[in-house]
Structure formats: C-alpha cells, structure tokens
Amino acid sequence: MELQLELIAHQFQIIFYNDRTSVFNPMPGQAPRLLLAEDYVKDSAERYVRGINAEGGTKHMPALKLALDMAPDVIFFLTDADDPQLTSAELAEIQRLNRAGTTINTIQFGAGSDPGGDNFLIRLARQNQGKHAYVDVTTLTDEAESTRATSRR
After folding, report:
1. Is residue 6 over pLDDT 60?
2. Do the strands 21-23 and 15-17 form a parallel or antiparallel pair, or are they unpaired?
3. What are 7-46's pLDDT values in tens digits?
4. Residue 119 contacts by C-beta under 8 Å, 6 or more apart in sequence?
5. What pLDDT band is residue 145 in, cutting at 50, 70 and 90?
6. What's the pLDDT at 4?
7. Which sign, positive or negative, has the C-alpha torsion 91, 97, 100, 106?
8. Residue 145, SS3?
9. CA 135 from centroid of its chain's CA atoms
C-alpha cells in the first residue's frame, strides 16, 4: 500500500474507529491535527494503517466529531454501513457541527451488489455536499495481499 499524496501543501489525517477512536499522531505529546503530506509523515501513516486491526463495535459519532473539529476541506468516511446506523438526530447534529462547510464523501463497503436505498451514508453525504460510493469487496483484487507479500521479502 502506498499513500498517494503528491503535493506537500496537502494536509491529511487518518482516524480509525470501532468502539473507540484512534487518531494518527506521529508527534506524541501534541494534539492530533491535520498533517502536511511530507514523505516521512506518509511513511509513518502507512505503518500506522498497517498496524490497525478491524475489531470491536462501531461508534460513528466520536470519529466524525473529531474529524469535523479539525475543519478539513473534505472528509472521506469509509465504513460498511452496518448497525448502528446514524439516526436523523445524529445526522442533524453533524450538519450543525459542520461549521467549516466540510464536504463529507462516504464510501460504503459491502459484499455483493449495492443494496440501494437511502441509507445513512447516502444522507450524510447529501447533507454535507458530498458524494456516496459503494464498493463491492468481492471484486477487489489481491493487490493489497501481493503488496504485503512483496514488502515482507
């Protein structure tokens, strides 16, 4: 896996969540913030991502609130859209907290074809000037696995 952030003027942050929130922070002792996309930061981010294991429950709101507090231009919110879903009240709270006008794009992972409908991810994107995409994980290649195998050699 290689993080493709080409211009150093770009800033980014990575927030993982399950029943707790984990923020990429290569500078211990400092509050998490948006980081410049310098090579050493991207390398550290890649190590951070590789060290994450998917486990536990799902609490969307703390991660979204933390991301919005950093006032980025855009958030890419990736999840499987399984329960618990954000309620209408929570979606309204996110809109209220989005004082910076952050665009929130949502990416939903699932097995098989897009189930359609108007789930909370579609509404979250629509209410925050974003777009929604569905990714059928059964169609993904083994590129990530072959990259891992190559990097172990």
Report:
1. no
2. antiparallel
3. 547 899 999 998 899 999 998 889 999 999 999 999 999 9
4. 81, 85, 108
5. low
6. 56
7. negative
8. helix
9. 14
- How far the first Cα of the chain sits from its last, in Å, is 15
25 half-sphere exposure, CB direction, 13 A CA radius:
10
Q: What is the DSSP string of 111-144?
A: SSS---S--HHHHHHHHTT--EEEEEGGG--SHH
Question: Percent of the chain beyond pLDDT 70?
Answer: 87
* Residue 81 or 3, more confident: 81
Spatial contact of 70 and 97, defined as CB atoms under 8 Å apart: no
* Residue 151 CB neighbour total at 10 angstroms: 10
SS3 state of residue 43: helix
pLDDT at 2 over 70: no
DSSP characters over 49-85: HHT----S---HHHHHHHHHHT--SEEEEEE---SSP
Contact 130, 103 (CB under 8 A): yes
Residue 78 β-bridge partners: 107
Residue 145 and residue 152: Cα distance in Å, rounded? 11
